[in-house]
Design brief:
This protein is mostly beta strands and 196 residues long. The protein has one domain (14-190): Jelly Rolls (Sandwich), CATH 2.60.120.200. 6% of the residues lie in helices and 46% in strands. The protein is globular and about 40 Å long. The two termini are 17 Å apart.
Amino acid sequence: MSNLTDVVGGANMYGGISYEYTYDRFCNAYSAIYFNVGYLQVPSGVYFSGDFTITAWMYLLSNSASRMIDFGNLLSDNILLGIDFPSLRVLGLVRNSTSGTTFVTPSLMQLKTWYHVAFVLSGSIGYIYVNGNLTVSAIQNFPNNVIRNNNYVGKSNWASNTNANATYDDLKIYNGSLSAAQILNDYITSSSNGLS
């Protein structure tokens, strides 16, 4: 697809609560992660130091403020992709030190439906794509090149947000910005389960 690499690739998730491996969107067993108001943790690291792309498939089970990912240092230097409550819209944020502006998609996500979601930062602009289509863009901070220690899948660094009640599949973080064509291609190819 590109010369970019998945920067979390070899980082094993650990700890966490209330999760299990489950069926993915193609009904393959043990191929996705179901969070029953749970989360997993990702080791400390410098996962973001410039342009990036986050892609994943999500299947929401309840209307709550939850995160797909939230990597940061408590309430500092957070990179997050999640669900806004109570609107059920996808939200993104690049928090540089302690400031940043959340932006959300205009359309609501339906519960119990698979969606391909992508969050791209290219320079100072953030983009959110749903099912291969650009839905919103906004000015975002450029991420600081720091080690982030509180890195979660399914959990927020803000105590007021609930843990995920959702299934996530094919979560990837790239060390650069994928183009609109590459996002669409990723959606199309990952929708087909290798069928042509």
